[in-house]
Amino acid sequence: MIDAASRGAIGSGASHLVSGHDPEHDLLERALADFTGRERAMVFSTGYMANLGVITALAERDDLILQDRLNHASLIDAALLARTREFKRYPHNDADAAASALRHFRREHPQAGALIATDGVFSMDGDIAPVAALAELAQAESAWLVVDDAHGLGVIGAEGRGVCEQQHLDQKAVPVLIGTFGKAFGTFGAFVAGESALIDWLIQSARTYIYTTALPPPIAAATRCALQLVDEERWRREKLHELIQLFRDGAQRRGITVMPSMTAIQPVICGSSAMALQASAYLRDHGFHVAAIRPPTVPEGSARLRITLNTHHQADEIAHLLAALDGAISQSLKKEIST
Fold first, then answer.
1. How do residues 157-204 score in pLDDT, each as one tens digit?
2. Which domain holds residue 121?
3. Helix 47-58 and helix 73-82: axis angle, to 10°?
4. Is-above-0.85 flag for pTM?
5. Which residues contact 196 (CB under 8 A, 6 or more apart)?
6. Pairwise CA distance, residues 80 & 57, whole Å
7. Residues 248 and 223 occupy one common structural domain
């Protein structure tokens, strides 16, 4: 990033379609297409803008937008802004319910289009979407499938290509793949990857791409280096998954209930917001920054500690975290009972 900044401007100065599309953007988009196994890719300034831009550009007024109930807020907001005939949310990770809703819509509106959207890895539960089943449904019913794999890319799959790699899904199965740079890649921004015709359409139709300043070129350069690290340093993923298993095994031994997640996101349900806040404060006092996630981000009664592991953590830190977590839960329960 520093090298790129020393050779040019810090900011891009304009939107992509005016004068803001720098050679660094082009290099990154080519690298992303290769990384994801797609024909082309395009860079957005944020993941929120990517989701809004894609869904509002693809969904027409008479279409159905079908989404998982626990999708990220940006996907939900995108569906609301699209103002289609129907916007339905199926129960979390229930591909059968999605199929039932889509087929019911098709019977009543046989000529209308449809779009299915899901997170790849759900940011507050840490579980993985049944993308393969949704892909089969989308192909059978001629629907778009949009997968936001913000939390999967870089860490899921043997090569770090996310849930599509894990579930053996190519561009045909998942025609619209969205990812962000602020998670495993450690930078900022987002992208969409797919066939060439899709990218051409989005460049001309995605308002959140057309009418905003392009990503700073030094960030694009840094992101391209991050993609190389994903390829060259496989040990990072291997270590991360060892730490995930170490944490889960330790939690089980201590009787700490963790949600069924095999990703870096390991939520511990506390129930009330007060208990989650108390537990978070206790952990902070013991040297651990663990966010308390409360409604409306999560449903009422499911406030939680959102533990997020990364490659820089060490085994002894996991052991100390588990001990502190044990104390935090015990103290919070005592306070909850006393009040």
1. 999 999 999 999 999 999 999 999 999 999 999 999 999 999 999 999
2. 2-232
3. 30
4. yes
5. 39, 40
6. 13
7. no
